[in-house]
Amino acid sequence: MRILFPLVLLLFSYHLSNAQAWLELGPKVSYGFTGYYNSSIAADDRVEYQLQATMAYGGTVGVNFDDFGGFNLEALLTQNEQTVNSLDILNTRIDNSLNWETLDLLLMYRFYSDKGGYFELGPKMSIIQTAEQTIGN
Questions:
Q1: What span, in angstroms and rounded, lies between the C-alpha atoms of 97 and 109?
Q2: CB–CB of 106/124 below 8 Å?
Q3: pTM for the whole structure
Q4: 9: which residues sit within 8 A by CB, 6+ positions away?
């Protein structure tokens, strides 16, 4: 409710000023590789990183205030997985699997070019929902 009131107020103020504004709503899906990085672990020759493919899904709400710009708020739920294999002192292989779920919130300013592309800039906040580590041989 705290977000809805300023949004309605913003749209109403654009309406009064005769500016062009529109609201866009839609689903969002993203696919790619994900993982974490630790420079101390990466510098160790006995450690092997394995990035896993992941999919995020959620939605987006956008307020566009002219032909070339607008603000988008996106919320994405992501299941992440990464495997880090290492060797201990006796050269025994240790498999370390990490699984975590995040809620990613993005507030982006989107600039649209007249050629059809766009550029986004803004902060992202990731909230860890669950995390699980499995260590085995």
A1: 36
A2: yes
A3: 0.70
A4: none
Residue in the block written with tokens 């370390």? 96
Distance between CA atoms of residues 115 and 8, nearest Å: 30
Percent of the chain, pLDDT > 70? 86
Q: How far apart are CA 37 and CA 14, in angstroms?
A: 44
Asked if 135 and 105 count as a contact pair (C-beta separation under 8 A), the reply is no
Q: Which of 49-53, 57-61, 78-82 has the highest mean pLDDT?
A: 57-61
Which of 42, 62, 43, 60 has the alpha carbon at shortest distance from 51? 42
Using DSSP's 3-state secondary structure scheme, residue 136 falls into strand
Map 31-92 to HEC letters. Answer: EEEECCCCHHHHCCCCEEEEEEEEEEEEEEEEEEEECCEEEEEEEEEEEEEEEEEEECCCCC
Answer for the pair 54, 20: CB distance below 8 angstroms, yes or no.
Answer: no
